Amino acid sequence: MSSSVGDHNLAAMNELDLVIVGGCGHVGLPLALSLAECGYRVGINDIDEQKIQGVRSGQVPFRETGADALLTKLLPTGRLELSSDPAMLRRTRTVILVIGTPIDEFMNPSVRIFERVLDELTPHIQNGSLVILRSTVFPGTSETVERRLRAAGIEADVVFCPERIAEGHALEELHTLPQLVGANSDAAFGKARDLFERLGVASVIRTTPLEAELAKLFTNTWRYMKFAIANQFFQIVNRSGLDYNRVLNAIRQDYPRAADLPGPGFAAGPCLLKDTMQLSAFT
Questions:
Q1: Which of the residues in the chain have pLDDT under 70?
Q2: In 63-86, which positions are buried (b, 16+ CB within 10 angstroms) versus exposed (e)?
Q3: Residues near 159 by Cβ (< 8 Å), separated by ≥ 6?
Q4: Helices (H), 48-169
Q5: Strands 94-97 and 80-83
Q6: What are phi and psi for residue 135, nearest 5 degrees?
Q7: Whole-number CA gyration radius for the chain
């Protein structure tokens, strides 16, 4: 009897509250740190062994305000565990996938990469798990994930909870921005809501998975379009020999309906073009 109780206690100690796949990147690591700070035992799973070793030794592999100090604070607590082995997923019933759908050389969504990674992870996902898709994906991906898991004999609650952070400010914005939760059932929504409410988010907004997928793509496409039209306006004014700042000030001054017109400048990054092309492919 004592041996059985001991084995049970050891198994409980070995469990993780959640595992973040892709957990050493700009999206996954700030989320891992924030949830660990809230008291969760967090598994960080990543294929990049060099990044894993760096994080394990206290080095954040990118610039993120406050991340270095928070990582240093959390490492001695034992609430962070890092591994490149997907078998780590067997020790949790909450899996957060920070895996997006990239675009190929023809600007078309490349869903095969996502599906290949999912196939590698599926044998390690427990029945009854909550699977959260965190990165921007092609519309319908949440449904595809749920269908593929079910075909493998795994009943899981699949929800889409898109990240909405700005790189470098994630640790702040994770606690303040509203969080979309695209869920098909009350149970799935409740599990995801409880997780994000621990972060103290401004609000949790319920949608269906497809609505949340489109909302994220619309947001980034709208921003990309705003930056693009601002640069077009600048070129028109510049060719006319005028000062664009004077024109922009005339448009925005004391006129709230034009207050969000941005100034000219570089606008790119890893997301805006990619997500605009995904939306274009969907339509």
A1: 1-13, 268-269
A2: ebeebeebbeebbeeebbbbbeeb
A3: 130, 131, 132, 133, 142, 181, 182, 183, 188, 189, 191, 192, 209
A4: 49-56, 67-74, 111-121, 141-151
A5: unpaired
A6: -85, 160
A7: 21
**Length of the chain, please?**
283
144 C-beta neighbours (distance < 10 Å), count: 16
Whether residue 219 contacts residue 164, with contact meaning beta carbons closer than 8 Å, is answered with yes
Residue of 58, 42, 34, 33 lying closest to 95 (CA atoms): 42
Alpha carbon distance 199, 73 (integer Å): 18
- Residue 217 · residue 136 · CB < 8 Å: yes
Q: Rounded CA gap, 129 and 124, in Å?
A: 11
Q: Could you tell me the two tokens for 75?
A: 């490492």
Residue pair 178/205 in contact by the 8 Å Cβ criterion: yes
Q: What is the pTM of this model?
A: 0.90
- Residue 140, classified by CB atoms within 10 Å of its CB into exposed (0-12), middle (13-18) or buried (19+), is middle
CATH of 2-209, one of 3.40.50.300, 3.40.430.10, 3.40.50.720, 3.30.930.10: 3.40.50.720
Convert the pLDDT of each residue in 89-101 to its tens digit: 999 999 999 987 8
Domain boundaries, the chain: 2-209, 216-282
